[in-house]
Amino acid sequence: MALHADRPGPTSQPTSPRSTEPDDGHELAALARFARSDVDLDRAGLSRNLRTVAMIWRREMIRFWRNRTRLLTSFAQPLLYLFIFGAGLNRLVSRGATPVGVSFQKFLYPGVLAMVVLFSSIFSAISIVWDREFGFLREMLVAPVSRTSLVVGKALGGASTSALQAVVLLVLGPIIGVHLTVVKVLLLLPMLLLVAFAMTSIGVALAAGMASLESFQVVMQLVMMPMFFLSGAIYPVTGLPAWLSVLTRLDPLTYGVAPIRRLVLGDSVAGSIPIFGVHLGTAAQIAVITAIGVGSCGLAVHRFRQSN
Amino acid sequence: MGHAVRVEQLCKSFGDFDAVRGISFDVDAGETFGFLGPNGAGKSTTISMLCTLARPTRGDAWVAGRHIVDERDAVRRRIGLVFQDPTLDDLLTAEENLIFHAVLYGVPGAEVRPRMDAVLDLVGLADRRNDLVRTFSGGMKRRLEIARGLLHSPRVLFLDEPTVGLDPQTRSHIWQYVTRLKDEQDITLFLTTHYMDEAEYCDRIAIIDNGTIVALDTPANLKASVGADTVIVNTSDDATAARQLRERLGIEATATGEGLRILVANGQAFVPRLFGGAIDPTVRTVTVHRPSLDDVFFKYAGRAIRDAQVGAGDRLRASPMMRGFGAGRR
User: Fold this and answer.
1) pLDDT in tens, B69-116
2) Cβ A36–B153 below 8 Å, yes or no?
3) Per-block mean pLDDT, blocks of 10 residues, chain A (308 long)
4) A70 touches chain B (CB under 8 A)
5) Closest B-chain CA to A26
């Protein structure tokens, strides 16, 4: 974009910075000394887009931090799943032993981490609809910045806040007997961030063309909940009836739950995901979830360009 | 360059509805230019096109010397916008909103703080800079939007109905800031309004009605062009009164919501004739006033701006945008 503007060579249009214009007598306020020449104005490029991404990310973090009450209530749901739902079903599922060799509660734990990532990512992406409703989206859309930097900033910001919420839940691991080492936690951080990035990007792509707050409920019920139930967060995705098996393979979150579970519980519990006889290992799963994230970002950029 | 804004045969249609029908005009650098007209006349559509938010159906326009379609980002870097509806993040502080804007508009890091100080001083919000915007009143929010619109030193500042929805006192405050801006800054102001009294702050005014410019001149010249006093008469039988005025005195009267509207060279001298048997119906009230921009609008648009507003209200429900979408789906 505007490569020529980066190099204001001798052939470029002569410009006259206002500061050199003859003083016409009236007193200019402090602002006037900042007036910029055309060359400065059109000096666009990568650093400017990166600053935009960073600024949008920062705004997400500030808003996240200011909304601490919502933060606290967002922990209620995972606690319910882990300690009420998980502990209750623990007795039912083979007297505490799942086919994969750990208690149901332990099996559920990485699923709950993925659930938190999914829910908070979609919620933070949906805030675009609020931004549209309350006008701030317009401030972003009329700015002389690329749509890509807006979408990437939003996706990274939403991803960071939802990964943070999942990270806080790591303290619950030892309580239910999941052994977390420093190495595991350090590997989990980028993994959670990656899954959060993919989920937020999906949410941004959905929200990009959404005009009303009512559509939000639809997304909740028709996208978010099915994604959660089909992802393998609460049951293994192997040995299922064929129709259900196909649906789980279509769920992007499936490829996020499996590597998170493998990191948390070890190799024996969650391995590859068989698709039509091909076994997708952890590396392939990570590749799939990355592709989904990047692809959704691209779709979101496209939808923003169209709506403008 | 010379012109801050140059518009040539600009058109915008939404489906089969022509919101803007081939308007042309120039705005000089440093000028305060007003777009006056009822809601739905095409003001906002025109301003959206000039701000690169909407693509013209036909025609061309340049803002700060850059083409609004071919050099969209170059235009965006050179303009400031203050919208009718708030576009602030109210979970951020005033300062955070400004920093966000400065970064998106590529203001060099070292300049951000002194620029913020300057614009916050201008709108008198320096002491509230660290407060969350959600604690601000409507007038303070608008002032902050004006400050933000100026932060990146735009060549042209667009103000779309800058005082709509504000109480009279806040309105006059906003105008104080705008007038100061106009006096102290080397900036072109382009504003829309449907308040007549506000249009008087402009150097020149374009009166827009049904998507066309019906008049364009200085407020003084426009008022002079009306060239007569306006007398508004309320009688027991306006229809008869109007006919008798036409038949007996050769004066055309127009029925309006307020009564009969009559244009005469000397309004005060005309009033005694009304009571002296010129018309038979009983005269209930008479008002005489010197030409105002209301009269100007009436002269060029053929109806009072208030009446136009009512008509536009119906159109607004099937507003240009809505109609556009509707037509697209059909």
Assistant:
1) 999 889 999 999 998 888 999 999 999 999 999 999 988 888 899 999
2) yes
3) 38 38 37 62 72 94 86 83 86 64 86 94 88 87 90 95 91 87 92 96 90 78 91 87 91 93 79 72 90 95 82
4) no
5) B184
d(CA B212, CA B181): 29
Rounded to a whole number, what is the distance in Å from the CA of B28 to chain A's nearest CA?
A: 16
Query: How, if at all, do strands A273-275 and B17-28 pair?
Result: unpaired
Subunit contact A143:B104, Cβ cutoff 8 A? yes
A59 and chain B in contact, CB less than 8 A: yes
Cβ of B92 and A59 within 8 Å?
yes
Instruction: Report the chain B residue with the minimal C-alpha distance to residue A49.
Output: B104
Task: Give the C-alpha separation, B38 to B126, whole Å.
Answer: 35
In whole angstroms, give the CA distance from residue B49 to residue A153.
27
Cβ distance B73 to A51 less than 8 Å, yes or no, reads no
- pTM to 2 decimals? 0.79
- Please report residues of A whose CB lies closer than 8 A to that of B111: 34
Contact A2 B100 (CB under 8 A): no
Residue of chain B whose Cα is closest to the Cα of A27: B184
* Residues 6 or more apart in contact with residue A67 via CB below 8 angstroms: B91
